[in-house]
């Protein structure tokens, strides 16, 4: 059975992943992972997270995948015993020096996508070094992955393979980018990327009769990425690829013999985690439980379009990505409108303090460390025991909702984005 591996940048996302069916969750260890701007987890946070995962029978992997200098290695050496003691199953690493340190402490060593593992021989080498798993390069095609897993099976190899199936794509091979460092002194390879690639860039060039750069491709149109901007200059998002979404190709991925499907997004919101995990869980279970009668559900993509995305592509799995993306193309905007002040278990009613207008029929999202991220369409509201259709900002309003909420949970209204 393939593992569904979910991201968590904080405890709300962690709960969201678990409640929606993740088999495993990966989190960042403070200052030593590729998302230093996410909330991340301390040693005590790892302990609490592992206790939560055990309740769901899920595994916990801790990211320690930045570029490591001696001082970083020495610091991590003293913390690995506690990472193991506090319940983590393994660490995700990009420096192969950590393989020995991980296994010495009883932790699985998972080699990060930053290692750019692209062939069977590299996997066998990593296996001899003691790696339990390798995340394959995102630049591999599905046919190339199938060839790798076939060779591993033929040689009775025990190393596991993991691939990304959903989330952001980086402009650089396996995320090895120096653009942020070159511009701002903030290194992507140390988890501190400011993502200048996502900005709109102005492109200029000068004609030169001595230019020996020749276009030898079959494409004569060299302007497909250029947009005429408001000031009559030319601008483009050519550094910013669309997000990856493989929801339409779950059968092919499972049949390829991959061990773990990974969702990218430790820096993204809890509702993104909840939705992505729920959708892929349904698709994976549907195919594994009854492959002959499996049918793709178009609603899965509709749901994925509701959360943050830059538009979707299939990455390098079937062809070279050919489209660029401007920014978030989610169909909804989340507006912060309220917080939960009480929940009455006996009657399944939540009391909300609202600072924006609310009406019956509105779709809301509730998020909290224990609640996770859930959506709900309001079908009834009351103030002082009287049924109402509309509530004005500044009110305390009661709504009927079956799922238990907690005091201080955040409440957002989902507003359709205008085209």
**Which CATH class of the largest domain applies here?**
Alpha Beta
Stretches where pLDDT falls below 50 for ≥5 residues? 221-226
Largest sheet, if any? 8 strands, parallel, barrel
> What name does the CATH topology of the largest domain carry?
TIM Barrel
Structural class: alpha/beta
Helix content range:
25-40%
Q: Number of helix segments? A: 10
Shape: globular
- Which sequence of strands runs across the widest sheet? 1-2-3-4-5-6-7-12
User: Mean pLDDT, as a whole number?
Assistant: 88
Provide the CATH superfamily of the largest domain: Copper homeostasis (CutC) domain
Compute the number of strand runs.
Answer: 23
Second rung of CATH, namely the architecture of the largest domain: Alpha-Beta Barrel
Distance between the termini: 41 Å
The proportion of strand residues reads: 15-25%
* Total number of distinct structural domains: 2
Structure in words:
The chain is built from ten helices and 23 strands. It has helices at 11-19, 43-56, 70-85, 97-104, 120-129, 142-154, 179-184, 250-255, 270-289, 298-304, and strands at 3-7, 24-28, 59-64, 90-93, 108-111, 133-135, 160-167, 201-202, 227-228, 234-236, 243-245, 260-263, 312-313, 332-344, 349-354, 358-359, 363-368, 372-377, 381-383, 386-388, 390-391, 396-400, 410-416. An eight-stranded parallel β-barrel has the order 1-2-3-4-5-6-7-12, surrounded by five helices. A hairpin with a 3-residue loop joins strand 17 and strand 18 (372-377). The protein is globular, with a radius of gyration of 23 Å. The two termini are 41 Å apart.
């Amino acid at each position: 059975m393939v593992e569904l591996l979910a991201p968590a940048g904080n405890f709300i996302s962690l709960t969201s992943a678990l409640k929606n069916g993740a088999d495993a969750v990966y989190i960042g260890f403070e200052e030593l992972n590729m998302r230093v701007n996410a909330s991340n987890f301390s040693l005590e946070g790892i302990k609490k997270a592992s206790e939560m995962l055990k309740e769901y029978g899920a595994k916990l992997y801790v990211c320690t995948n930045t570029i490591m200098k001696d001082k970083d290695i020495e610091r991590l050496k003293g913390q690995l015993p506690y990472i193991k003691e506090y319940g983590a199953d393994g660490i995700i690493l990009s420096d192969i020096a950590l393989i020995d340190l991980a296994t010495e402490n009883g932790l699985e060593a998972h080699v990060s996508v930053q290692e750019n593992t692209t062939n069977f021989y590299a996997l066998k080498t990593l296996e001899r070094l003691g790696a339990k798993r390798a995340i394959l390069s995102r630049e591999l095609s599905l046919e190339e992955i199938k060839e790798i897993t076939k060779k591993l099976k033929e040689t009775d190899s025990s190393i596991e393979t993991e691939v990304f199936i959903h989330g952001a794509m980086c402009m650089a091979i396996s995320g090895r980018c120096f653009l942020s460092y070159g511009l701002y002194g903030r290194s992507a390879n140390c988890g501190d990327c400011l993502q200048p690639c996502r900005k709109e860039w102005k492109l200029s060039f000068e004609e030169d009769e001595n230019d020996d750069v020749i276009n030898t491709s079959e494409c004569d149109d060299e302007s497909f990425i250029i947009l005429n901007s408001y000031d009559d200059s030319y601008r483009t998002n050519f550094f910013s690829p669309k997000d990856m979404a493989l929801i339409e190709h779950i059968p092919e991925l499972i049949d390829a013999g991959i061990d773990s499907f990974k969702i990218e997004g430790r820096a993204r919101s809890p509702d993104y985690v909840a939705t992505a995990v729920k959708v892929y869980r349904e698709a994976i279970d549907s195919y594994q439980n009854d492959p002959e009668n499996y049918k793709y559900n178009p609603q899965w993509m509709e749901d994925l379009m509701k959360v943050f995305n830059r538009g979707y592509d299939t990455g390098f799995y079937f062809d070279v990505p050919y489209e660029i993306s401007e920014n978030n193309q989610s169909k909804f905007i989340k507006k912060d409108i309220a917080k939960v002040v009480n929940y009455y278990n006996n009657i399944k009613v939540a009391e909300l303090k609202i600072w924006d207008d609310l009406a019956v029929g509105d779709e809301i999202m509730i998020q909290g460390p224990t609640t996770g991220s859930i959506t709900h369409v309001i079908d009834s509201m009351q103030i002082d025991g009287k049924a109402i259709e509309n509530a004005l900002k500044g009110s305390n309003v009661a709504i009927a909702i079956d799922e238990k909420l907690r005091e201080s949970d955040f409440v957002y209204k989902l507003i359709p984005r205008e085209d």
